Amino acid sequence: MNDAAACAPLTPASFKSSYKPIWCPGCGDYSVLSSVTKALAMIGQPPEKVAVVSGIGCSSRIPAYTTCYGFHGVHGRALAAATGLKVARPDLTVLVAGGDGDGYSIGGNHFLHACRRNVDLTYIVMDNHVYGMTKGQPSPTTEPDWDSKLSPGGTGVRSFHPLVIALASGANFVARAFSGDPNGTADIIAQAIRHPGFSFIEILSPCVTFRPEQREWKQLVHPAPVQQTDDPGRAARRIMTDDGFNIGVLYAGERPPYPLGKAKTPTAVADLEAEFAL
Q1: Is residue 78 part of a domain?
Q2: Residue 178: beta bridge partners?
Q3: What is the rounded average pLDDT for all residues in the chain?
């Protein structure tokens, strides 16, 4: 890299790869991708200092659409991979991208313990209350009375409440954003990255293909009526009485993040092999 390129100011375009997204027209994830690149430009870390980890699902394609290091893992295991990466490479800024199916169903156990460990990474979940990639099955956040061909009359099962779970499990930063507000979402993502410890952002990202009624979310979202708090008890009361459409940072705690050591000098392969020699 020449000096001119090294000194060039970072812009959202600095983080966009040449691959074109293939989401459905109107999908909220397009805006989320834009918000992520805007946030990274705000942070000022070059792409080679950022890693984006994902699992399976529509939203999990995001790593390929950035110029950062990327890891596209297996279903529900993105947080496990990202935790290992951040502990091994504390010098990297680590983002995790996923959806409500990947993160709260098969990945639910990893979600709980990632909050509890409080490793310094940022988890962005694009929540559309449906499995979009696999043709519209109800997800953990789907309303119990949502009627569809795959769940006639609805599931009758109470919806998973990710913000409540994140707070109760120990997440140090809890927020909600809306894909229809890309600049506001970018600002929240930047705040989350800067905040120490495990940061969780639920982004309402409509699936207009299987949930066309979610176009109405644009009229339903509104700024949270009160300021963020560092008191988990107060945050819990706010979140438990939440209508699901309050936008903003709901909780920013002060719990120390998981202790990270300094990056170690890489070990030669020959030395690793010698440790396992019989």
Answers
A1: yes
A2: 204
A3: 91
